Amino acid sequence: MERYRERLAVARQALGTLDEILAIAEPSKIARDAGIQRFEYTLEAVWKAAQVYLREFEGLDIGSPKGVVRACRQAGLLSEDGAMLALRMIDDRNLTAHTYNESLAQAIFGRLPEYARLMHVWLDAMDAGA
Fold first, then answer.
1. Comparing C-alpha atoms, which of 127, 116, 2 is closest to residue 77?
2. Hey, which of 11, 57, 68, 83 would disulfide with 78, CB 3.0 to 4.6 Å?
C-alpha cells in the first residue's frame, strides 16, 4: 500500500506540472516543447501508479503500458472511451519520445488538455478504489 501511495503522489505531482504549462494562454514553442516533455513523464508516472494499483488491489502483474490500460478498463478504473483515449495517449507518447516533427508536436500539444483531464480522472478512480 505504501508503494502505491508513493506512486500516486508522484503521478499527481507530475500532472500538476503539466497543468501548469497548459494554463499558459499562448505558449511559446519552448513552452509547447516543455509541455510535451511534461506529458511524457506524467504519463509514465500515471501508468506506473496504475500498474502498482493493479498489482496490489487486483492481483494482476502487468508489464506494459497498453496492458495496464486494458486491465484498468476491465477493473472499472477507465471507461471504454477513456481506455481508447489512454491507448492513443500512449501512442502519442511513443511518437514524441522517438521522433521530432514540428506539425506532430503541434498536434500532440493540442491534445494535451484532453489527456490531462483523462489522467486526472484515472488517478481519482485509483484513489477511490484503494
1. 127
2. 83
Which CATH architecture fits 2-129?
Answer: Up-down Bundle (1.20)
List of residues 6+ apart from 111 with CB closer than 8 A: 89, 92
Q: How far is Cα 92 from Cα 66, in angstroms, rounded to an integer? A: 12
For the chain, the structural domain boundaries read 2-129
How many residues appear in the chain? 130
Give residue-wise pLDDT tens across range 2-28: 999 999 999 999 999 999 999 999 999
At position 91, the amino acid (one-letter code) is: D
Using the structure block, give the residue that is written with the C-alpha cell 481519482: 124
The model's pTM? 0.95
